[in-house]
Specification:
The protein is about 70% helix and about 5% strand. The protein has about 325 residues and is mostly helical. Strands 1-2 form a two-stranded antiparallel ribbon. α3 packs across α5, α7 packs antiparallel against α8 and α13 crosses α14. The relative contact order is 0.08.
């Protein structure tokens, strides 16, 4: 009877339950997974087969690889980190997205007001006895609104970039834990530093403990001295410094830059929607990261020729 009950639970059921356990809305979960909101809703509703996006959903929810097979067997997917630690991380990551969302809302309100001002100027200008003073006042407000929108849009692009970069670090960090390839590279240093600054001491201590148990690696050793000194004494004492590997790739491009590069490289790509652009960028980044890791491992082992899948020693 127990096995029959387990096999009736669908992929959508496990995804929805996991999302709710992490305190995520569907929109936030879709953003973390870099999939369209409708795609995530469809996965939860068991409406469509989304095989190509499953690894992204799996990683965003903090499941280990093979979760899809475990669900098909009626078993609970395995988590990379403890649920409490993962909730703490997600809370930090989503703050950046929430800030960008608020700025986007501000821009939308300002644009509506700008349209109202343009309409008002047109109405006042066509009146028989047009009030030039009123027109000048409206034009002044239009100029201020346009300047405000321009400044907020520039801020939004930066915030979007920061959120996208953190989203990439989140995905890469969980992938490294699950895959056993977490390395003391700059991205791990950046992620550990951000978590140390944004988490409560107890939350960060739980993260440190989880990572040590999984990889044997103490992420406190990646922190700069000033960040480490800001931690409570019990968290900073006895920490061994880690020699960081150089950053193997430049930071992920912003969504705007991704779209520009793609449209230049592929005719017609400018017509792709944002979810397609993000998916392509994520896949390219993943492949490039795999190649970079292969080079680092091969060089460390003394290989002179490097190929994907194998290395040759001199």
């Amino acid at each position: 009877m127990g096995d029959e009950v387990r096999t009736t639970k669908t992929q959508g059921y496990y995804v929805r339950r996991r999302r709710e356990a992490l305190g995520l809305s569907q929109d936030s979960a879709a953003w973390l997974a870099r999939v369209a909101k409708t795609t995530f809703r469809n996965i939860e509703g068991d409406k469509v087969e989304e095989a190509r996006t499953w690894p992204q959903v799996e990683r965003a929810l903090g499941w280990r690889p093979g979760s899809e097979d475990m669900i098909k067997m009626g078993l609970e997917p395995r988590s990379v980190l403890s649920d409490s630690v993962l909730r703490s991380i997600v809370k930090v990551v989503l703050r950046y997205q929430e800030i960008a969302t608020l700025i986007r809302q501000e821009c939308s309100i300002a644009e509506r007001r700008l349209n109202e001002l343009h309409a008002e100027r047109g109405r006042v200008s066509t009146e028989p006895d047009a009030d030039q003073e009123a027109i000048s006042r409206i034009e002044y407000e239009i100029e201020r609104s346009e300047k405000y929108i321009h400044e907020r849009e520039r801020t939004l692009e930066l915030r979007d970039y920061n959120a996208f970069h953190l989203q990439s670090m989140y995905s890469g960090f969980l992938y490294g834990l699950a895959d056993g390839t977490l390395a003391p590279a700059l991205t791990t240093h950046e992620f550990a530093t951000l978590m140390a600054r944004a988490m409560q001491p107890g939350e960060f201590e739980s993260l440190v403990t989880d990572v040590i148990n999984i990889t044997g690696m103490d992420i406190r050793g990646f922190l700069d001295e000033d960040v480490l000194q800001d931690l409570p004494a019990n968290l900073r004492n006895g920490v061994q410094r880690v020699e960081r590997l150089p950053h193997l790739m430049r930071p992920p491009a912003s969504p705007v830059e991704n779209r520009l590069v793609l449209s230049l490289a592929v005719p017609g790509a400018e017509n792709l929607d944002e979810s397609d652009v993000q998916f392509i960028a994520a896949q390219v980044t993943e492949v490039a990261t795999a190649i970079a890791k292969a080079f680092v491992r091969a060089k460390a082992s003394g290989a002179t020729q490097i190929q994907m899948g194998e290395t040759k020693r001199g």
